[in-house]
Each structure stands twice: as C-alpha cells, then as structure tokens.
Amino acid sequence: MIHKTFALVPSRYYSSAFEFDPVLAVLQFLHFSAIHTSLKLTRQSHSRILTLGFSQNSFLATKLILAYAVCRRPFHSRLVFDSLQHKNVYLWNSLINGFVKNGLYSEAFLLFNQLCSSDVLPDDFTLSTLSKVSGELRTVFPGKSIHGKSMRTGFVSDTVVANSIISMYCKCGNFGEARKVFDEMTVRNAGSWNVVITGYAVSGHREETWEFVKQMQMDEVKPDAYTISSLLPLCDGDVRKYDYGRELHCYIVKNELELGIDSDVHLGCCLIDMYSRSNKVVVGRRVFDRMKCRNVFAWTAMINGYVEHGDSDEALNLFRDMQTIDGVEANRVSLISVLPACSSFSGLLTGRQIHGFSIRKELNNEVSICNALIDMYSKCGSLNSARLVFEDDSLCKDAITWSSMISGYGLHGKGQEAILLYDKMLQTGIKPDTITTVGVLSACSRSGLVKEGLNIYSSVINNYGIEQTLEICACIVDMLGRAGLLDQALDFIKAMPVEPGPSVWGALVSSSIIHGDLEMQELAYSFLIQLEPENPSNYVSISNLYASSRRWDAVAEVRIMMKDKRLKKLPGCSWISINNKTHCFYVADKAHPSSSLIYNMLDDLLLTMSDAVR
To answer: Measured by CB atoms within 10 angstroms of the end CB, which terminus of the chain is less buried, N or C?
Structure first.
C-alpha cells in the first residue's frame, strides 16, 4: 500500500529518497499533499509518520499540521498538536495560522491565550499574524492585547510586528495609537510609512495623507509602487486633485516603477481607475494600451471605466476583445462590471450571453452576479427573466437582491407587486435600507399609490430609523406631484430636514409640467438655477416656459444670462444598436453616412402619415 502511495508522486527522486532517508521522503510527500490540497494523501502521510515512529518529530508535525489546515481540517491539526509532548513556538504558529486561514478567528485567539499561559513565548510571526486578524475584523480590544504582549516581549521593536500593529490600529480607526507606535519606532522602512498612508487614504483623511507623504520625503524615504497605488484613489474629482494624479503618473514613469510585471498591472489598474473617475477615460485607455502585461483585473478596470463614462458600446467591445484577442477569461468582477453596459443600450441578447457564460462557469449562484442580472434584465424590459433569477431556490438573497427586484417592479409600473415583495422581505427578517426605500417609493410613485407610499415612508423613518436622504425626499415629492398634490409637495419640501437639492426641485418641475401649473414650474426652475448655475438645461427650460406665456422680456433676460455665463445646451441625442454597433443621432444631424437614405425614408413616412389623416 505504501509503495503504491509513493508511486503517485511524479518523480523518481521520491522513491530513492524514501529508500535512504524516510524523514525526507515523508516531508516531500507532505509538501506534495499540501500543494494538491489532498486530504487522502495527507492522511496517508500521517499514517506513514506513525508507522515509522516519528509521531514526536516536531518538524514533521509542523508540516502535518499545515497540510491538514490547507485541506480545511483545522481540528485534525489540533489533534496532531495535542498528541505532541513537547510543543515549540513553530508548532503553535502552525496551528494558529491554520485556524486563521480557515476563518476560525475566535479559536485562533483562544490558542494564543493558551500559548501565553504556557512556558513558550510567542514570536514575531505569532504577533504579526494575530495583529493582522484584529485589523481585518476591526476589533481593537484583542489588537491591544497583542500590542501589550509585543511590548512585554520586546517584539514591538521588530519592524514587521510594529507595522502590523500600526495597520491594525488604522483599520480600527484609532489613528492616535497608530501614530504613537509609528513615532516610537527606532527603525522604519517604506512599509511603515505605507501602512499609515494607506490607513489615512482608505479612511478618507485626504489632508493628513498628503501631509504624511511630505514627511516621508523629508525623511528621505522614497515612495514605492505601493505608496503610489494608495495615493491614486485620492486624485479624482476637481482639477487640483487631477493634477496630483498626473504628477504621480510622471513619478511612476520617471522612477520606472512600472517595469516589474506585477507592479505594471497593479499601477496600471490604479491609473486607469483614476483617469476614468476624472472623466479622462481616453487617457486611461492610453495607459491600458501601453501596459506590457494585462490580466483580467486590467481589462476589468478599463471596461468599468467605459461603463462609468457612459460608453457602453466600447465597454462591450472591450469585453469581447478580452476573451478573443488576449484569451483572458472573465471572472466574477468583470461580469458584474460589464452587465450595466447591457442595461444602458438595451442589449438584452448580450446580457443573456453573459448570463449563459456565468452558468457555464458555475458563477450563476454568486449573489453579486445575480443582483447585477436582475438589474440588467429589469432595465432591458425583460421583467420575467429578472423574476426567474430572483426566484431561483439556490440563490441566497441579500438586501440588494430584494432591492433590485423591487426596483425592477417599479420601473415597469407594477407598484402593487413591489409593495407585496417589500412586505415579504420584511417577513424574512431583512430590514430596509436607503436603496430599498427609494426602490419601493419610486414604484409607488409610478403607480399612483400615494397612500401606500406615505405609509411606507412613515414606517421606514419611525420604525427602522432610516435617515431622510435627498433621494427619499425626492421620491415623496415626485409621488405627491404626479398625483396632482403640488401644494402638498411644496409644503413637504419646506419641511424637509435636509436642504432640497436639484433632484427634489427637478421632481417638482416634472410634476408641474404634467399638470400645467406654470406658477409652480417657474418657482421650481428658479431654485434649480440657484443650485445649478452652470447647467444650461435649466436656463433653456425656463426660457421656453416664459416664451409659452409670451413673456419676451424674461426670455431675453435668460438668454443674456446664458451668453454672459458662456453656457450652451448640448443637442439632444438618440441612438439605436444594430449588429453590436451603436448609431447615434443628434437634432438635424447629417453626419451619419446613411443620413440621405434616412431622411428620404422619413419623408416617405411623413407623406404616408399625411395621406392616412386625409
């Protein structure tokens, strides 16, 4: 039996090793078992260790504990550990690390407490591992215990341990303690600075982040690829922040940080993301095209950039190129990123193909993909397909799943179904959040269910403690306005606990237009112009309103304001997608290569319609 087992190892050296050195043979076999995550081979190795009388060999036991942990049998590792008479720190570390890797964090901390009660002292690996776990769990109390033990044992002076403690405090939001540990460090490396910079950046402390970068340079520590990747997410938004991003890009090129294959991909993804969020997707594409190595994350970053920029056609083309040109297989994140592109252009066929791909790759039970599919099908007009995804018994629904389906019913004017599903969600014990509330209130608004909508609004505010956001308030204004209750809608706006934004006044404008209330329409437009002085659409709309009332002086005044502000309204655009290609048309557009044929057809249709009227 033993000889057959060793024959599984594809190397002639294992059998010869077994012949001359049984310890080495078992060791190599354990290594092979761990690499292939084979519980069967691990058990055979364990049996061989017992047969050879090596049950108390601490080195083999360490490897055996790790092998069982890799095979997701941490309690088998514990049995091996308990069978040993003499336990050193390496054995403790292997067992603790095995429980951590299997997500059994409470058991890992219990083991640490047992270690501290024994005559064995934890080392730098023990302390840094558990510090990291505390940070990931965002639980500062056990982290402080690790910090205290590090101070008592002197390992706090170890750079790796200190860095892990700083990271733990940053992730727990305790930046005072993090800075204290950092300032007390006798030896710092680039990683020490990066930990604090990343902590500040992730928590949104922009000013502190940039100030710390300046201190890093004053201390003559050169920012590395990790530093830059932490700073790039802070460089979207206004022109000043975008300039910071360009400077960082220059720094990458000047210092050749992109030369490493891994660095090239990671920094490339960060740059693409930064440029895309700064509405510079063309520059992001240049970065993408110049990357030496492009994996699925780089392709996904570029696809996501096009989707966020509204260029869904290019996003879908890139998704196809990813698989046909580079041979890169889509993963869960790339599927979630590209599905909104199908929604934007009513690409139902492409959406179904992506759904089929997810089924073939056994990703169709991933809740995040199912949520994206429900949203895509709803926006493409296939509510039945959305419902089929939602009602799949194998799907473990979360709050977003329910919200997506409720919003889908709302988009299709099925308010009663949305309310029934909302009530069913509450019965399952899932509490509504802001997104769910907006979805069900929008459904009520589109279906004219004012009484039901107001009851839900009152319930989520009073019973579930949902804050009254601008989105929720805009839904209420839209609901009241659509029902013709314009005065009640205006009273609601005046009593709002938050400052009314463009979405709120925009909802009142739409309702005023529906019901022909010119006075309310003018009032709402005046507030919109105050809130969005650079939006030309507001000026054009109020100018048209004045023109319909023959108030030509007011029309001239609005036009002068637009001229002074150098505002020009972009022409309206419509599009149609044929054979995976999108054709865009603007007002009086003659740029399309088939425009003459299109206008001839339009003339024929107008003539046919005129004859039909006669």
So the answer is: C
